[in-house]
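dumping this here before i forget
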Amino acid sequence: MRWDNLGEDPANPPAPADLSLFGADAVTTRTFDTPEFRGVTFHEVRARSILNRVPGASRMPFEWTVNPYRGCTHACVYCFARKSHAYLDLDTGVGFDSQIVVKVNAPELLARQLASARWQGAHIAMGTNVDCYQRAEGRYGLMPGILTALRDRANPFSILTKGTLILRDLELLVQAARVTEVGVSVSVGFTDRELWRTIEPGTPSPQSRLDVVRALVGNGIDCGVLMAPVVPFLGDRPEQLRATVRAIAEAGASSVTPLVLHLRPGAREWFAEWLGRHHPGLVRRYERMYADGAYAPTWYQRRITRQVHELAAEFGMGPAGPGGTRRTAALEEPGATTVPEQLTFL
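structure:
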C-alpha cells in the first residue's frame, strides 16, 4: 500500500525530500468491533497538508477543497471518487467502501494553514470528493474543529453532504454564517426507497436527508439540493422526477440542481457489476447510453435538466439570485471535464 501521490499544498510547497502528504510510518490501522463499523478498516494518518488546490483545467466554481477522509462508507455504487483509491493501491470496489483513510490532524492543520500570511481567504469547498459527514465522522469528530477554524478566520466555505450528522454541528454553522459566507447543499437524487437501498446502501434515507434540509433552513442556513444522480431508466420516469422535486420543495430547499449519472473509470466497472446483478435487462441500454464516455448524451442531460427546472418552477423554487449563498457544485474529481449541463444551476 502506498501513501504518497495524495497531492501537496501549493501555498506551502514541501521540501524536495518531503513530497508526500504523510509517510508510511505515520499510518495507524484500526478496526472497531461495533455493528456500524464491522468490516471497516480505518487508516489513521497525520497529514502534512489539508488545503487542496483544484487544477486550473477544472470547471468547478471553487479553487480550494478540504477532504478529511478518503474512501466512504456510504458505499454509493456510482461514486466517481472510487478511482482515487487506486492511487493508494487500494481496491476501488469493496475496498473503497471499507478501507477509510482518516486525516486525524485535519482540524489543527487547517487552523495553522488558514493563519498563514500566504493564505488569502479563498472559498473552501468540502464534500466534493467523499462525504465529510460519512459514518466515520461520528467516531473521529473532525468537522467541529474544521468548522471552528473556518469560523474563527471568517473564511467562506460550502459543504455538500448526504449525511445527517451535519446537524450535530448546526450551532457552529449558524455561528459561521454570522461572520462569513456559508453554503450547504444536500444530495438527494431520488426518493425511491427501493433504489436507495440498493444503490446507496450506506447512506441515510432520502427522507432523512430532506429532514436535514428542513432543519437547516429552519435555523436560517440557506440550503440547496443537488439532485444527484438522476439514474437513467431507474430514477428518471416523469412521476419519479415529480415526486423527488416535490419533496425537495416541501423541505424548503432554496434551489435544486439536477445531475445525471456519470460513470468514470473505477466507478464504471463497479456500477456495471451492480447493474448486472440487480438489473441485467438494462445492461445493453447502459452500454449504448454511455458508449461515448463517462457522460450520458447531451440531449438526455438537457431533457432531464429541462424537466427538473419546469417542476421546480411549478413547486415554487426559483433561480438563486446573484447575492445568494454560494453552493457546492456537483461531486467532481479534480481536473475532470464536465459538460455545461452538469453545472447548470437554478
